[in-house]
Amino acid sequence: MEEEWKVVYIASRQEKKVAVRLAQEGIVYYLPLYQKLSQWSDRKKWVEWPLFNGYLFVKPTPLQREKVLSLQGVVAFVRYNKADAVVKQTEIDIIQQVLESGYTLESYTKPEDFTVGDEVLITEGALIGHKGEILRHNNKEYFLVSFETLGQSLKIELPAHSFKKTTIE
Description:
CATH topology of the largest domain: Alpha-Beta Plaits
CATH architecture of the largest domain: 2-Layer Sandwich
Number of helices: 3
């Protein structure tokens, strides 16, 4: 039986360090990172940031579960109905596709052509077949689309020609 993806809470700003510790222990993990231009007083630099602050995905065997909890920086497993919360592989795939696609992870101005709340189906690109919701529209041909995963929203800028209105099932 293949192990399931689970989510662990991580101490503040410890995500990358915990990922290194998990790798050293041979525990399968996934830390989704995105690049952001950070400004310091003397320079700007592209820095990798965790997509979900304070969270990391793991696929521990039953014997590795306690090892995960013992690692410095790991707070606890996310729980749901008195058991470890399980994340579907399809949700991990969506996150990976979003990050690999290069779509901009930012918000934009007021909606104009589409109505906020319109449900859309992606018809082309790396996210083809996935459904989301229009959040905003800027003054160009791009929209901010939200995808629900892990009880959180991923917000992605997509061109209008890459989706159509639909009903989310």
